[in-house]
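Slide 14.
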Amino acid sequence: MVDEHEYSDFYDLFVKDFDERCDSDDNNRLDAAEFEVCIEEIPTVNSAFVALKKYLLEDDEKIEQLISVLSVRERGIDDDGLPNEISVNLAEYMYFRRAALSWKDCVSNNDYIQKVEVKGCAFVIMLPFTPINDNDLNMVWLAGQDLLPRSDVPESGRVSFIGFTSLFRKYDSFKKYDYNLLRDGTLSYKTMIKGLDDGRLPIERLNKKNIDKLFNHYTDDKYKENYNYTKEAVGLDFKAYFVLGSITDAVDMYGKASPGTVNEGEFLLMLESRWVPHGVLPVID
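Slide 15: predicted structure.
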């Protein structure tokens, strides 16, 4: 239960800020321009916030990357048949505010966060209702070290703000399936389809067709090793789920012509950006 004072504090901290300072066109969503204004007006309460604002505002692509990481909704189609501009709603904006608060209270070197700072401070702020143990933290951190773009992991043991937000946004999404994971902690085909059917699927941009393609491809690889593998028996671990989510984010950011797809030119831009999971797709110089 939330009492009147707690709700008033919540409204003043999040809803009022979102409505009055950020959402200039009153459509309950923030586009890139509105989100940039929000970031520009963050009070510079300490050196970590100064560094965070400088990092996010140094080029427009950083804002688009962050919005793509935060948003899990389908973009929809405008009147001209083109994808709507990607945006952030209030719930997604709150992820950003919690990540920013984590940065303010937990990081020691301003530009990057370390694993010990996540474990002892940032995780509880970022995802207060999502449990994590040492094994899960190691799993998430290693996935980030292996897969985040090199610009987000300049050296072993450190992760940038967008990298941190992406990792733990997707971990929170993955853990929403915790009610029905396989014995080895992986996410099954049946669970993802059930999540789609009952509305619990955290990434709304996925659909049954895409899930079928994903598991059929995964099964083909496993089938070569063990003829007993079927689509229903294969599970996605967090690393595979992170790749899925990251590629979805990138396609959403660069797919301007058709929802959920990229044409040849957009695909090349996506590769050149170096904003795809490291080692998953080739890097073009």
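Speaker note: The mean pLDDT is 77.
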